[in-house]
Amino acid sequence: MKNTVFKTFLLTSVFISFVFVSVAQEKPLKLRPDAFPPKPESTDSKVVAMAGSVEEMSGWNRYPTYETYLAMMQSWAERFPEHCRVDTIGTSVQGRLILCMHIEGERDVDLYRPQFFYSSTMHGDEVTGFVMMLRLIDTLLNGYGNNQQYTDLINSVDIYINPLSNPDGTYRGGNSTVRNAIRYNANYVDLNRNYPDPFGTEPMNPQQQENTAMINYVGKHHFRLSANLHGGAEVMNYPWDSYSSYENPHPYSEWWIEVCKRFVDTSRTYSSSHFRDTYNSGYIAGGDWYVISNGRQDYMNYYHNCREMTMEISSDKMLSSDKLPEYWRFLQHSLVNYIAEIHTIDNSTEGIVEAGSQIAVYPNPTSDMVFIGEEPANPVTVYDMQGRVVIKMPAGVRIVDFKTLPKGVYILRTGAHSAKIIRR
What we know:
This protein is α/β, with parallel strands linked by helices. The protein has helices at residues 3-11, 66-79, 128-143, 148-156, 167-170, 209-219, 253-268, 286-289, 296-303, 324-340; strands spanning 50-51, 63-64, 84-91, 97-103, 115-120, 158-162, 223-230, 233-238, 283-285, 307-314, 361-362, 369-372, 380-384, 389-393, 399-401, 408-414, 417-423. The chain folds into 2 domains: 29-345, Zn peptidases (Aminopeptidase, 3-Layer(aba) Sandwich), CATH 3.40.630; 361-423, Sandwich (Immunoglobulin-like), CATH 2.60.40. Helix 1 runs antiparallel to helix 2, helix 3 packs across helix 10 (324-340) and helix 7 (253-268) runs antiparallel to helix 10 (324-340).
């Protein structure tokens, strides 16, 4: 989004309302206790220093005011116009901006780069990730051309970073402080219990404006790997959240475990006690910790074929601001290395729709038949979002019958070509 448009958003609030219709399989609702029951958390004994200007954030031992946050994002866009731009995902219930920094390398050639997404603080009082993401943006942009690892990473991956996805919860006490932050949005809804559930559970509340904006933004991209940053524990939480691994293991659980090990081990080289407060391993399948429905992690994995995990990065939801530099030291290299994990995803084992490899199909969404635009020279295979083959057809067949399949998202592949199909 051009800076002029972004500046216009800084002056005016545009409320975005979309209607999202969930396509999901039915699953009995399993009521489980929430590991983090909602409760007010006192910050009276903490240092909660606020930065009223970009310059005051230079030591990274403060939380930004809302206006400082906007100014930081705008400053990077102006200082590094060749390598970043600010996207407006949408606005919150109270009209605050939900922003995303898109960082990219040189585009001298028509090179496909996989898309990566970091998002933080959908629970407004879990603000450690908010500052970590701002510092990550600063580190990557200032490192481009000066640090070979960062330069290579930016040149090989399109990186998107959304530092704050629930600004109303974070700035509940006003734009000048995070001290009175709460978990919920302005409607007092938990945004991480408000996404379409791939296994059939309906959210307790209507889809919130912040989540509608995020759903539409994600739908315009092809993110292959992402992470959602939280606080209140120190543990890597990989999918599924809706089931225990005994009931329904994620098809790439072995890959997830290796990724989590690398993240935790790297962090522990800087602090041996980090990521031990919940499980000594530092990682767990979400449903083995506790089961939730309507979370963003399962939504992203199932509906967008994006490998997303939940990173619980600090036992204290709101660190004393003087501890923020210490936590950056623990987390910096793990956060950077996690972006590079996108290159460890084996395209041959899953139905990723790559740029340049899409095939025309219609109608889509469908309730019964799908027609392939060109006669396929190779056999046609349809996969569900757990990687299982559900339909196989010989080469030359242009009509595929979906009406016997449950509602959901599927990947149709023929040779090197593929398409994402929604069965409604």
